[in-house]
Design goal:
- The complex is a heterodimer of chains A (384) and B (268).
- Chain A has 14 helices and no strands.
- By secondary structure, chain A is mainly alpha-helical.
- In chain A, helix 4 runs antiparallel to helix 14.
- In chain B, strand 4 and strand 5 form a beta hairpin.
- The chains are: A mainly alpha (384), B alpha+beta (268).
- Chains A and B meet through helix 5 and helix 6 of A and helix 1, helix 4, helix 6, helix 7 and strand 6 of B.
- The structure holds iron/sulfur cluster (2 copies).
- The site of one iron/sulfur cluster has 14 residues of chain B, from helix 7.
Chain lengths: 384, 268
């Protein structure tokens, strides 16, 4: 089936070349990082994780969100998602690939990556994260590919796929829960030491992922003959609405707990992120932008007549995506490290090499996504 | 056991994969390897190494400098000169930063601005060990020292996020150019870029029957006392049972093995 990715319009190829160019530049910069070390990033002794791990955290959510299509379709027989579950599954594949690459580029000794497998350490959450992520990647490739293969032959998918799909539905929340546990089980990091962390992760995932899917569906409708259908897009819009509200609510719980308890350690990260501490406030404008995007998007989404307009829905979805990208892909990680264990502030800001490598990993993700979507859409166009 | 370290690690790794090792087996093997390799008749032994730091006895800048430079020279700790990429095993910090949350406005000036020597606490419940995905950070069951295997560390820095005491440093680049040649201790390995490091209670000196380098450096002050916490007759136990001592962030339950005396005088 993969051969379908090898034929395409001029625009398709220009897009592929564009992605390849970014990947190429990023690869060169990565070689430099490989040679010099992570010192070329903005990370430091005090803020020892940054943009890379933030992207990883955010994208695990995007990956997990595939379940928001698969579950209603297979468990509740929500027919309108029939056409697009494959898009969710392939988005999950691309996201997990990005997650793995972000972990890889963040490692100080990437040549030793196999140590995690050679010395399995059940007490380390990172071990379990590796297990659930690779499992999820496999599940989505198998399910997506098999169903698409059946579709292209015009036959019903094999019987064994159904239990695998059910497994993938159960599996999806686990990848984001385990990722949340990477943070929420650490002593002394007050910002992360929160029981609602996993719940918040899932809520933000189930809004950011479907928001991205809405945008992708609209792009596909413009650029190909594939149309997800108005109803499916509106259904996705509802999912984004519910979970975005849940996400804002959970964030509110964190703020209340920190400030009503008045415990300094719990308040400091919020103060740093939203007001700055002792004149250090590099993230303040970003965090307020994230807050503003969240509020505006929620208002737009809860008004049915606004949500019903596809243009407005797309705009609100973009706001949701951006808001959560800032919150989870950046603020959450940095906020966990500032102030440091000595109640001192060391600021973090990504360097250019770091940004370029990050963009390149995203480009790899988009490349995987484009190729998979190209195959999926070609199959659907043929059978249609 | 007549195999080298690499071989040992390989076999330990493979046997774990095959299910022979298990967490317990591996750490036991590793301990026996360590003791066989390093044990000499004059080695100092303890079931639980601990340090007591009597802050009042460190009366001059020179004391601090002596202790810190002895440690850093003994272990080839690079002097990077850039706080963001700093590597440090032993360093000083004022009370309010060493014990955040325990400071208050009206405390004695002498203590408020007094530097405290900080290092890895060799916690009894070390979160850094709990999170490490490769067992590169592990606690020696034989004596409680929290160790670091530089050859196994993948540089994920999970342990840095987990340590609530900021005790770990990462080699953001190759540290070797930052070690002055005349200062280099040829008997202790230098690190590569991309691995995490920290104080190891001078396990290599203990094995030769020597006290930790910092303790040795300020011996005349008697400010640093190192000994076996599990032995009721040890000096550390005697001091702790007759003096009021504090530990960093006790509320987190990591059970640090480094104790601080802030009173100085006997007040038991
Ligand atoms: S002080 Fe930090 S590095 Fe040392 S044992 Fe405790 S948690 Fe680990
Ligand atoms: S950085 Fe090294 S020592 Fe620290 S958790 Fe990762 S592998 Fe273990």
């Amino acid at each position: 089936m993969l051969e379908r990715a090898l034929t395409g319009s001029g625009r398709y190829w220009r897009w592929i070349l564009f992605l390849l160019a970014i990947i190429g530049v990023g690869f060169l910069v990565y070689l430099r990082q490989f040679k010099v070390g992570l010192g070329i990033t903005g990370m430091s002794r005090d803020v020892s994780w940054g943009l890379y791990i933030g992207q990883f955290t955010f994208l695990v959510g995007v990956a997990a969100s595939a379940v928001m299509l698969v579950l209603p379709y297979y468990l509740h027989n929500h027919k309108v998602f029939g056409k697009i579950t494959i898009l969710g599954e392939f988005l999950a594949v691309a996201s997990v690939v990005m997650c793995m690459l972000f972990i890889f580029v963040d490692m100080g000794q990437p040549m030793r990556v196999m140590n995690v497998i050679l010395h399995p350490t059940p007490n380390s959450v990172m071990f379990w994260d590796a297990v659930v992520l690779s499992g999820y990647l496999l599940l989505n490739i198998v399910v997506g590919w098999t169903i698409l293969g059946a579709e292209s032959k015009g036959v019903a998918p094999q019987k064994w796929v159904k239990p695998v799909i059910i497994l993938s539905i159960i599996w999806a929340p686990s990848i984001h829960t385990v990722t949340a546990f990477l943070y929420s089980g650490l002593p002394g990091r007050h910002f992360w030491l929160s029981a609602v962390m996993a719940a918040r992760f899932l809520a933000s995932a189930f809004s950011a992922g479907p928001a991205l899917l809405i945008i992708l569906c609209l792009i596909l409708r413009k650029t190909t003959k594939f149309d997800a259908g108005r109803e499916a897009i509106q259904s996705l819009g509802k999912i984004v609405t519910y979970f975005m509200i849940t996400n804002v609510f959970l964030l509110g719980l964190e703020v209340f707990t920190a400030f009503y308890s008045n415990i300094p350690g719990h308040m400091h990260p919020f103060q740093y992120l939203f007001a700055g501490i002792e004149g250090h406030g590099k993230l303040v404008p970003l965090m307020w932008a994230s807050g503003l995007f969240a509020v505006v998007s929620v208002i737009m989404l809860v008004i049915p007549s606004v949500r019903a307009k596809e243009g407005a829905l797309a705009f609100a979805s973009a706001l949701v995506f951006l808001s959560l990208w800032i919150d989870k892909g950046f603020g959450l990680i940095v906020g966990g490290f500032v102030p440091n264990p000595f109640e001192k502030v060391t600021e973090y800001w990504p360097t250019w090499p770091e940004v370029i490598i990050t963009l390149a990993v995203w480009a790899v993700g988009f490349l995987v996504l484009t190729v998979l979507y190209k195959v999926a859409v070609s199959v659907k166009e043929e059978v249609a | 056991m007549s195999m080298d370290r690499r071989q040992f690690i390989k076999i330990a790794g493979i046997s774990t994969v095959l299910g022979f090792g298990g967490t317990l087996g591996l750490s036991k093997l590793k301990d026996s390897w360590a003791s066989e390799m390093l044990q000499s008749p004059e080695a100092l032994n303890a079931k639980h190494w601990a340090m007591v730091i009597d802050v009042k006895k460190l009366t001059s800048e020179e004391h601090y400098d002596k202790a810190i430079s002895a440690c850093h020279r003994a272990h080839n700790v690079p002097n990077i000169g850039n706080p963001k990429e700093e590597v440090k095993w032993l360093w000083k910090e004022t009370y309010e930063h060493a014990f955040p949350g325990m400071e208050q406005e009206y405390m004695p000036e002498g203590i408020k601005h007094k530097p405290f020597l900080l290092l890895c606490n060799h916690c009894e419940n070390p979160p850094c060990v709990r999170v490490c995905p490769t067992k590169a950070t592990f606690k020696r069951e034989s004596d409680g020292i929290v160790m670091q295997d530089m050859h196994r560390c993948i540089g994920c820095r999970f342990c840095m996020a987990a340590c609530p005491f900021g005790a770990r440093s990462f080699n953001w680049r190759d540290p070797r150019p930052f070690i002055k040649e005349q200062d280099e201790n040829k008997e202790f390995p230098t690190r590569t870029k991309g691995v995490v490091e920290k104080c190891t209670f001078c396990y290599e000196r203990l094995a030769k029957g020597e006290m930790p380098a910092c303790v040795e450096a300020v011996k005349d002050t008697k400010a640093l006392v190192f000994g076996d916490l599990s032995d009721p007759n040890s000096e550390v136990r005697k001091i702790l049972s007759t003096h009021y001592s504090i530990r960093r962030k006790p509320e987190l339950g990591t059970q640090p093995s480094v104790y601080y005396l802030i009173g100085g005088e006997e007040n038991a």
